[in-house]
Amino acid sequence: MTHRFARLSALAASAVTALVVLAGQPAVADQEAPLPTAFDRAAAARDVPRDLLVAVAYAETHLDAHEGKPSASGGYGVMHLVSNPTTHALEKAAELTGLPVEKLRGDTEANIMGGAAVLRAYADDLGLDEAARKDTGRWYQAVAKYGNASTPEVARLYADAVYEQLGLGIDTGGVVVKPQEVTADRGQYAKARDLNAAVGVGILSADYPPANWVPASSSNYTASSRPSAYAIDRVVIHVTEGSYAGSISWFQNPSAQVSAHYVVKSSNGEITQMVRDKDIAWHAGNWTYNTRSIGIEHEGYVNNSSWFTDAMYRASAALTRAICDKYGIPKDRSHIIGHNEVPGATHTDPGSYWNWTTYMNYVTGGGTPSWSATIDNSSAGFSASSNWGTSSYSSQRYGADYRFANPVAASDPAWFQAAIPSAGTYKVEVWYPADPGYNSSAPYIVATSSGNQTVYVDQRSGGGAWHSLGTFSLNAGTYNAVGVSRWTSGTGYVIADAVRISRV
């Protein structure tokens, strides 16, 4: 797609500031600093929490600059500085830093400095003073604005993804963020619809009930009455070249002139439908194929395999299987194709890192995990002290009830015991009901082969569904594999409901 760049203006005072900040450091133009150093410098120069800056970059690009090439919505570099007809974050970064647009697009150190400047400007707009800026949770609304979302619900989706990453931790490209307790102050976004919520909580897709429904702009698709108007006989697989929330927001933007029927999230396989099956999404770049197909976008970039998770493959395959069953489409590679296989295609997605063998195996019903175990709080493998109460208050619970306890300065964990069949890599998922009164940073402990690892989860949102903590190396044997600790500075009841462990 074509991207137009808005007016570039540079403020002289900002240029002087940028020169002072970079004085005494290796010249950005001559030699890029390593990623960790670049984040450290930008965070210090703009008084932005360093780990939050990394989390924003990770949510946007997994810290991949993509050789200076733009995303689908016109975003550049690891900080995804956007320049399109309606969003001018790239130009704003140039004004704030005094650095040329060309450098912000193609130089990673400059790009990170620009992203930090934009984020800080949004914090200033919120009135965050020096003391408030030290509290990472207070930056939530600034992060939501950084995502350039079209609606409050998508802005919340974006910001929640960033803060979730702080709880999970990050270790990529030499940049490390340790899992940490953060209570996100959502402010006005606390009232926005939680698109991470379980089925039955949000507005659901009429065509595929496991998906949320967030409509694309009517300027980005053609209303129709398929399959009576046109037969549906293809599924086209795409990669967004952008983030999940960013892609949803882009399809809501009337200037995008592009859309897809469904978007799938990388980390947990969450699905949002944006165009009804009966209507014609503009996704294939070929009108005949648009009329005859369903388009599925997958969060990520074609040149970075880290986006293509097992959770994404399984969720997307289940969707494709349902589409094929509904419209009588054969489940084969002649009818389930990549965007690059559309006649006349100029796109390369899903690219060489997309594992068609795995995907088609899941579509046709294979690929069931070789071992999986679910431990509920009522299972024999669950144990907790008398300090943990029992409740059935929330309808988002797994099973008949769940456990709750007040946070204290002592671990007193509730444990989920599992019989791990052999040493290896396992995916750990947790289920909890969500409520504004539940814990903002609940510590989940995973007993890995190299020692306990803690992941922090905001139990105020995203409840009533399986929530991935990640993949971990586990030893064989029967032991307490996953725990929920009460030792947290987060506010609200700590919840222990259910755990699922699957070999990968």
From TrEMBL:
Pfam families xrefs: Amidase_2, Golvesin_C
Residue ranges of domain N-acetylmuramoyl-L-alanine amidase in the record: 221-351
Reaction(s) the record says it catalyses: Hydrolyzes the link between N-acetylmuramoyl residues and L-amino acid residues in certain cell-wall glycopeptides
InterPro entries: Amidase/PGRP_sf, Amidase_domain, CBD-like_Golvesin-Xly, Lysozyme-like_dom_sf, NAMLAA_amidase_2
Recorded GO MF terms: N-acetylmuramoyl-L-alanine amidase activity
UniProt KW keywords: Cell wall biogenesis/degradation, Hydrolase, Signal
E.C. code: 3.5.1.28
Claim: rRNA processing is one of the keywords in the record: no
Signal sequence, start to end: 1-23
UniProt name for this protein: N-acetylmuramoyl-L-alanine amidase
Species of provenance: Microtetraspora fusca
Record lineage: Bacteria, Bacillati, Actinomycetota, Actinomycetes, Streptosporangiales
